[in-house]
Amino acid sequence: MASPELPSLAPSFVAKKSAILHDLSTPASSYEDASPKGSVDTAIVELIDGINKLDGFVTTSSCAGRISVFVEGKKKSEDRQVDENPANDIEGRGQSSQDKETVAGTGGKGGGGKWLYVSHDPFTFENGQDLAEALGMTRKGDRDSAWEGHRLVRFKFEPMILHILTASLEHAQTVLRAGLAAGFRESGAINLTNPSSATPMVAIRSMGLGLESMVGLLDSNDEAMCFVSEKSLGGLLTISNERFEENSRRKERFWKALLEGVQAGSSGDGLKKKRGEDGGDWEDKEVRRERLRREGLERSKAKKESTNTEPA
């Protein structure tokens, strides 16, 4: 399928991109987001920089992929409520639309849950290593009280997720096509309802690479007790490391496909211009309003000058 011609950029998108890039340029020591790490992942910085240098695209949130171990939040016996506090975001992936709501209970970290281990790099095995301890858990504790509270300790591997704000439907199609071709099968887009002024948001993601398992329980002393063997933990970590490798390959394929799509949608002298209904250059509604106002003032001024120069 041929790539769509990419239109010129609306001033409204250019302004949004400028504001986002200003935040990203904040020094790492000062920049904060909603993730446990609190900053952009090193493993994805190069990709983000490359995307943000392309006209018509800007990243808004990202995760390079990670291994995590966390304790679920407190469960409610009835009438479960949604935790709206972004600080309790279970995925900790900034502005991701799929992560905004966390339910204290099934898989949720809100409601008193906590992180035990988070890494955006493959796990490094060492001789004689206690894997449970390395992941923030213990082999000791009150087993009876742990089962009474029934707050699970979960192990997760999550692949890359990337949110990209685009300048038009054509730009969004280019990103989405690249994501699907690279193997990010669950990618999708929102804000597609108004073709004349839309700035679609595209999510690049692949849930098929994900991995999750129960590995322990929290006892009454707030100790995370590991209930699986060291061999089982080693297996989970080994599989996660293998999926990190596949995650990297898909990331590289996505970048290559995106570049090819942008190049295919561009002419020799830059991006193709979107045409208006009259065949002229397409304009953002705010730009058109300002142009019409300016032209009206110029006509009024010309008419006034013409009247003043007429002979008596």
Strand content: 15-25%
Number of domains: 1
Broad shape: elongated
What is the number of E strands? 13
CATH fold-level assignment: SSo0622-like fold
Helix content bin: 25-40%
As residue ranges, the low-confidence spans are 77-82, 84-105, 268-275
* Element-level helix/strand string: HHEEEEEHHEEHEEEEHEEH
Strand order of the largest sheet: 5-2-6-10-11
Gap between N and C termini, in Å? 69 Å
What does this structure look like?
36% of the residues are buried. The radius of gyration is 26 Å and the shape is elongated. The strands form 4 sheets. Strands 5-2-6-10-11 form a 5-stranded antiparallel β-sheet, sandwiched between helices. It has a 4-stranded antiparallel β-sheet with strand order 1-7-9-8. It has a two-stranded antiparallel sheet with strand order 3-4. Helix 5 packs across helix 6. It has helices at residues 11-24, 42-52, 131-134, 143-149, 169-182, 230-264, 285-309; strands at residues 57-63, 66-71, 82-83, 102-103, 114-119, 152-158, 161-166, 188-190, 201-204, 211-218, 224-226, 266-267, 270-271. The chain has 312 residues and is α+β, with helices and mostly antiparallel strands. The chain is 35% helix and 19% strand. It has one domain: 2-Layer Sandwich (SSo0622-like fold), CATH 3.30.1960.10. It starts with 10 loop residues before the first helix and ends with a helix. The protein has 7 helices and 13 strands.
